[in-house]
Amino acid sequence: MQSDSPDASRKRLYVLDTNVLMHDPSALFRFQEHDILLPMVVLEELDAHKKGLTETARNVRQVSRYLDELLGSTADIDTGLPLPHAEGRLYFQTIAHTHTLPSNMAGGKVDNQILAITLDLREQHPDRDVILVSKDINLRIKGRTLGLRVEDYTTDQALEDADLLYTGVCAVPADFWENHEKEVAAWREEGRTFYRITGPLTRQWHPNQFLYLEDDPDFNFIVREVEPNAAIIERARDYTQSRHSVWGINARNREQNFALNMLMDPEIDFVSILGQAGTGKTLLTLAAALHQIMDEKRYNEIIITRATVPVGEDIGYLPGTEEEKMMPWMGALEDNLEILGQSGDGGVWGRQATQDLLSKRIRVKSLSFMRGRTFLNKFVIIDEAQNLTPKQMKTLVTRAGPETKIVCLGNIAQIDTPYLTETTSGLTYVVDRFKDWPHSGHITLRRGERSRLADYASEAL
Predict the structure, then answer these.
(1) Alpha helix stretches (DSSP H) within 8-71
(2) Inside any domain, residue 355
(3) Maximal C-alpha separation, the chain
């Protein structure tokens, strides 16, 4: 079997599978100085998926527009089409493949035809590295068994490893104050305590990142400004105390306290919260949203949306309006509103008001109808955000108008969308891209707070 490492000195020829272009239409321009070949079956598959209002159909139509523009620039397809923003050329399969596949591989199957074409190209161009690029794991496995060089399309991944994803917190060394006390300037503004810290440690910090000491529960700070060799930090508010409850909810651990600091901060327009089931993502977000809408009058409505990717068998089309169709996907919303109804401020009035909020102050919207909209003075919650592609995430976040806050919730360990991984998820994408923006914040919740049964099941099962 051949080595999987291409020779860097040789110009490569990449054969693209259909799912690569469906996933990222701009993949045509992402291979730098190397050449690309599109098999004829890929063009046929693109044609079969061009109809509809889904994100995949939109991507396919964009690919078709790109190809039409490229074909209009030259009359000689055999010599390849020059690719803008890249030095390579685009080729199309113009002759039938002649390579014979093993007898147990059906020749009419699209994946097998792509494999046969790649094998043909490898024989026709022994001086080049011919590489098949596909998002389909099974196709890559079959390609490897045939001795082909195969790769996943990773150009759009935000990180090499999901374990490197920004967590939003930083543990400072135990001797932090001892090493910085001579270089600290402290002051108070409107009841808030600020410190200006200088030193090399500040170069690792990001705006709205949280700092803590492992053995000191009172050391909780948030980074407000980052300078080349200094940073301004503020003491975080303690939402674990009952007098600082948010719609009857208190933080139960350090990370939840940090999450409420971000959710309640009007200067932070974009918040992302990662965490496993039971860590309190939805409950904390809803409590903060209700408090700022009902008590502080900061926003006038909650908009909740999520990717409708079923975990089990799909139940088909649902009757009713847009909100009625989305309600079966919003079980977590109803569960958490029930908790907030029991703990909400105002006794009987609070419980009754919470029961009415679903129809009066909370709007459940579908992703399918987000294009072209602008949200003004809204608290937008994107649930199950790990199932969104980077392009879908961009479409949603750019809907924000003045005085709007967007909160993304998800768990990148539970991705249900085909061809999305922990490193290519739209949630990973925004966490990495927004970490240096002074009006955004992120936190990863580690500890479950549902029950001892749920905690044990998460560990033992």
Answers:
(1) 18-23, 40-48, 55-71
(2) yes
(3) 79
What residue spans of 91-209 are helical by DSSP H? Answer: 110-124, 137-145, 176-180
- Residue 124 in tokens: 């026709």
Per-residue pLDDT reduced to its tens digit, 405-423: 999 999 988 888 877 888 8
Q: In which domain, by residue range, is 453 found?
A: 245-460
- Residue scoring higher pLDDT (8 or 119): 119
**Long-range contact pairs involving 90-94 (C-beta distance under 8 Å, separation at least 24):** 90/28, 90/35, 90/36, 90/37, 90/38, 91/13, 91/35, 91/36, 91/37, 91/38, 92/37, 92/38, 92/40, 92/43, 93/37, 93/38, 93/39, 93/40, 93/117
Question: Which residue pairs, CB below 8 angstroms and at least 24 apart, start in 330-335?
Answer: 330/304, 330/306, 330/364, 330/383, 332/282, 332/383, 333/282, 333/286, 333/304, 333/358, 333/362, 333/364, 333/383, 334/358
| Residue labelled with tokens 């003075």 | 377
With beta carbons less than 8 A apart as the criterion, state whether 212 and 169 touch.
yes
CB neighbours of residue 317 within 10 Å: 6
Q: Comparing C-alpha atoms, which of 121, 125, 133 is closest to residue 24?
A: 133
Q: Where are the alpha helices (DSSP H) in 221-272?
A: 254-263
**pLDDT, tens digit, 9 for 90 and up, residues 255-289:** 999 999 999 999 999 999 999 888 889 889 988 99
Same domain, 455 and 313: yes
**Of the residues 108, 136, 151, the one at which a domain ends:** 151
CB 407 within 8 A of CB 379: yes
Residue count of the chain? 461
Q: How far apart are CA 200 and CA 205, in angstroms?
A: 10
Whether residue 82 lies inside any domain: the answer is yes
User: Up-side HSE of residue 22: CA atoms within 13 Å toward CB?
Assistant: 23
Q: Are residues 112 and 256 in the same domain?
A: no
Instruction: Determine the residue type at 181.
Output: E
Looking at residue 312, what is its pLDDT?
Answer: 36
Same domain, 283 and 389: yes
Q: How far is CA 234 from the centre of its chain?
A: 29
CA dihedral 456, 459, 460, 461 (to 10 degrees): 110
CA-CA distance, 115 to 92, in Å (whole number)? 15
| Two structure tokens written together for 228 | 């080349």
CATH code for position 448: 3.40.50.300
Which bin fits 175, alpha (ψ -120 to 50), beta or left (φ > 0)? Answer: alpha
Per the structure, how many domains does the chain have?
Answer: 2
> What's the rounded mean pLDDT across residues 334-346?
60
